[in-house]
Amino acid sequence: MLLPYSCAARLRSGRLLLALLLAPAAPALAQTGFAPGTPYPCGSNLPAKVVLGDVNGDGLADIVAGNQSGAAISVLLNQPAAAGTFGTPLRCPTGGGQPRGIALGDVNGDGRPDIVTANAAGGNVSVLLSLAPQSATFAPPTSYGSGGTQPTTVALGDVNGDGRPDIVTGDFVTGRVGVLLNQAGLPGTFGAVATFDGGVSRLTGVALGDVNGDGRPDIVTGSFGGGGIGVLLSTAPQAAQFSAPTTYVASGPADVVLHDVNGDGRLDILAADSYTDAVLVLLNQASLPGAFGAATSYSSGGRYPGYLAVRDVSGDGRADIVVGNEGAAPDPGSVGVLLGLPGQPGTFGAVVTYSSGDLGPFSIALGDVNGDGRPDAVTSNYRSTTVSVLLNSFPTAAATAAATVVDIYPNPAQAQFTVRLPAGFGPAQAELLNSLGQVVRQQALPAQVAVPTTGLPAGVYTLRLRPATGPALTRRVVLH
């Protein structure tokens, strides 16, 4: 899905007639779950990867979109007066053409999110440091060799255990993974790239996570029709060394995501397979952590799924999958949602589809953009010049009623806040989520407990309470 546009179009044209002849009836567009998508101009043709993050420090999640044309990315700021709506895009040059891959993270330790891009036409990765968060201003890009010729994906993570996020990128042409270490003497600058066999060709997806439980982040790769999914285990964290890849067969897993979908404490692999129009789930094996079982395939609900994201979007405490189906004219594409099944951890129900409100929803990001405590969906619409926002509309009346008797004080909070559970609610697991939906604190709750927040940046957070039985409750928490 991340091929040069002309090449991708030629590949798809050969499949289109067969797809139309063999296609089952498309799932009906849903009326509840996500509101119809609202598109916003993003200022670029062929918008690619989309991510969410608070780039201007106002506590609201903003949109950052990559680009398969030109040499700039787009930043759309969330509007405080109407949270969940977005302003005119700001353009940021990237120092390389076709910045398809994009990641957000504080790479220089100043508390502000910076932007890292993989520039497919430049053969490099670029770092844009945040200068003035209130205005979402970034320094001119600093570019580094990626170790390949066409990097299409990028991720941030501390691969050598020094507490600083490093850059990991994947190259479409060579199928190799490039690792650039954050420099101790000058945080936010990166050393020469080291490359590793990614285990696949036509590499388009990279994910970082500790898949074998040794405390070190491993690398998982995906490919657009290039041999499947590769797993590279960390072998020497201080030197950022990785094992030869173990490859799992799949047709065309363009994007890969790591998430514990069955609740066993181990990260599983999920992939959007654009060749079979499927979502693949590979469960981490209890008998051999870091090894994965055969893929279970689920319909994505549309044609050419590109990216996926995993979160509990329905509020029932189970992981759900949201996938972007780009489609091909005249099909406008769709957003597919697969809800986790009750009593069957790691399995998912039939897909339900939603409209993004524009053509070719491709990349997907999940996060609470309007401050109601529920993860919303944002898509990049590859066959238009827009991104779309689909607000979460899953029913929450019961949870909201119960949540009104959950006491949180003080709120706004500083060093800590206290949670008092309602009578009869019972012990619960408390999770504090940032605006990206990432869990930044978690602990078991008795009837009343203080939750420390020291070290967390100011902003709006979501407190999620998971009881032993019944639905999870969410409350908004503001940190000063």
UniProtKB/TrEMBL annotation:
The record's listing under SUPFAM superfamilies reads: Integrin alpha N-terminal domain
- InterPro entries linked to this entry: FG-GAP, Integrin_alpha_N, Secre_tail
Signal peptide positions on this chain: 1-30
Q: Does the keyword Transmembrane helix apply?
A: no
Key word Signal present:
yes
Name of one Pfam family that matches: FG-GAP_3
UniProt xrefs under Gene3D superfamilies: Integrin alpha, N-terminal
What keywords is this UniProt entry annotated with?
Signal
NCBIfam families per UniProt: Por_Secre_tail (TIGR04183)
- Record protein name field: T9SS type A sorting domain-containing protein
